[in-house]
Amino acid sequence: MTVRAPVAIAVADFRERVRRPAYAVVLAAAVGLGYLAVPEVDARWVVVNTGEYRSVYNSAYVGMVTALAGALWLAVTGFYVVRGTVARDERTGVGQLLAATPLRGSGYLFGKFLSNFLVLTSMAGVLAATGLVMQLARGEVRAVDPVALLMPFGLLAVPVLAVTAAIALLFDSVRPLRGGFGNIVWFFAAMVGMIVGQGPDAPLGGLGVQWVARSLRADLAAARTGSENGEFSLGLMYLDHPLRTFEWSGLEPDGGFVAQRLLLVLVAAGIAVLPVLWFGRFDPARTRLRPAAGAAGPLAVGVPGPLAVAVPRTSRVAAVPSWLAPSRDVPHGREPAAVGGFGRLLGGEVRVLRRSGSRWWWLGAALLGAAGMVAPIAAVPAVVLPLAWIWPVLLWSRLGTQRHEYGVDALLGAYPGARRRMLAEWGAGVAIAGLTGLVPMLRMLLAQDTAGLAAWAAGLLFVPALALAAGVSSRTHRLFQAGYLALWYVVLNGIAALDFMGAVRVDNRPVGPAPLLVGTLALALLGVAFLVTTLRHARR
Questions:
Q1: In 3-state terms, what secondary structure has residue 443?
Q2: 146, 128 in Cβ contact below 8 A?
Q3: In sequence order, what are the residues at sequence separation of 6 or more whose Cβ sits closer than 8 angstroms to the Cβ of residue 61?
Q4: Tens digit of pLDDT for each residue in 89-99?
Q5: Carries keyword Cell membrane (predicted)?
Q6: Burial tier of 297 (Cβ tally within 10 Å: 0-12, 13-18, 19+)
Q7: pTM of this prediction?
């Protein structure tokens, strides 16, 4: 294996990925994060909290806060951007072509790791440029030190992004973690990793927080502020009053810390090529692919009328909408609405989502319902309902993505009733939300919790609308899975401003946004889905 082959794979893959909408979305969010990391001089929020003080906005401090914030943000969201490359090569047939070449599995995996790493570091580079702009915009220190600005990115952010790139490839190479289940596993694993990575015993320096904390405390002690033993924490926090300032001289890494960070990158490279032990390099003689139930050929899907399409058998037949399947009850040339109306569309979409859940999934939903029946009433909206409405996240993420997933998007784009079908998809999501949240609703009804019922109803409309808008806009499951998990997590942690289901309470009353506002936002998200569909249809 020569070095050229992995590099060529990495460059080609990188060029393809940076053209995707998901890359632009995460990149825009990273720029916004740079603004949050360097707020106005009298602002009352911080990303790096050192007690009552912050450094003046010099290059060293701006580089440090943006690098740490970028490491946190890109480690979570960047994972969802870079993953899926192995499955895409298998689905498109590129993998089978590579299997016929002399390229080794280790070379292929290393090339994909480099591609993941390039995507993430390019985002970090944009964040570094944003930090430079923010330093000049804030105007406390206009002298720019490029080394002090970029050093935190090289020592703090880059090793973390290397680990993220490697784990994304590892998940893609393990079939149970390749899909939505892996996305959920990563979200919670990343949350745990961020907590552990900030501790004093973090492996290979973790996020580098403790090293930064020692440097800041040393300069606080030199400035005789009296805060040299104060708190140090990482995360977006609101303060009661503006912070006083001191001047931080910047990072002064020793050889041991630099060696730790380099070793962390090497460990990431080792994780990336670890799947060579079981990865078959798309060779049918070495890889046991699970054929779809029934046959190995394409699935012929009929639509009412003379049109038909062949869908590759990469998923279960049950996932195909029933209104796409051949039906002896539908006369030739007539659309579904002419026979069964909207009810037939809705019933078909409900059956699609119902069959997407395995028996184990439904058993888990039943156990959550049973737990809701016996839980204390105070725990129903705060604990039981959030658990009930995180359980269907993989089902909801299918909304708006199935037509693209099965390759019939272009065909159905020219078929009548596009908005009606989308409304049926949303209705199916509402039905799943109502079914999984039925027990909490009944408990609140018996307790005469009218405010909780109103919040429940608003959330019932909001979550499927969010899933549909995310699915239609991105044509991928991952945007909703990542976004909804983050939203659900902050609600579970008591952030009332984002509570869409009435889980955050004071004196047993919801304190989040008004249900009318949440319901209006749900309608707005439906409008976004309709608008995106209309614009795409107009471009054909």
A1: helix
A2: no
A3: 54, 55, 248, 250
A4: 887 777 777 77
A5: no
A6: exposed
A7: 0.75
